[in-house]
């Protein structure tokens, strides 16, 4: 089933109060963030807190998405392993390229099988944040049948390009339209 994603509310994964009230706002998607919003010292506790929130908090009609850490970091696969068991609707994969999407899909295949979760039920949303990710966008999108959407991260993209962000945003015009 296709889902409308007009509003996506990012919630820091290490903030219990914000996690508890995330469903009140009626966003199409609630993104529980384990990556940028969480310091290195809090990664493990945030992962546990997000898993408990998914299991116990009423997010209303909002799609529940977890932004994991990059899979080439020490935390990405730990995030998938811990979070898949509580069955979020999707995982947001940062700094996505085709290899990372395939790795995330493979990890989910294994975990869904071992946790007796319907295969393919946890979806993926690649987050394009680099020139390479943008250049290989079609390959990223074809990397897994779990992909249900794609997001563009302008801040990390401009940092990758060595370009200064402006209020007008003309520096990301091409990437946003692609």
Question: Which secondary structure elements does this structure contain, and how are they paired or packed?
Answer:
Layout lengths: L7 E5 L3 H6 L7 E5 L9 H14 L6 E5 L8 H8 L6 E4 L4 H17 L8 E6 L2 H5 L1 H6 L8 E2 L1 H8 L11 H5 L1
Overall description:
The protein is α/β, with parallel strands linked by helices. Helix content is 39%, strand content 15%. It contains 8 helices and 6 strands, in the order βαβαβαβαβααβαα. The chain has helices spanning 16-21, 43-56, 76-83, 98-114, 131-135, 137-142, 154-161, 173-177, and strands at 8-12, 29-33, 63-67, 90-93, 123-128, 151-152. The chain has a 6-stranded parallel beta sheet. Strand 3 (63-67), helix 3 and strand 4 (90-93) form a beta-alpha-beta unit. It is globular and about 40 Å long. The mean pLDDT is 94.
Structural class: alpha/beta
- The sequence of SSEs as H and E is EHEHEHEHEHHEHH
Shape: globular
What Rg, in angstroms, do the CA atoms define? Answer: 16 Å
Q: Which sheet architecture does the biggest sheet show?
A: 6 strands, parallel
- Across the major sheet, the strand order is 1-2-3-4-5-6
Question: Could you write a compact summary of the structure shown?
Answer:
The protein is α/β, with parallel strands linked by helices and 178 residues long. Helix content is 39%, strand content 15%. Strands 1-2-3-4-5-6 form a 6-stranded parallel β-sheet.
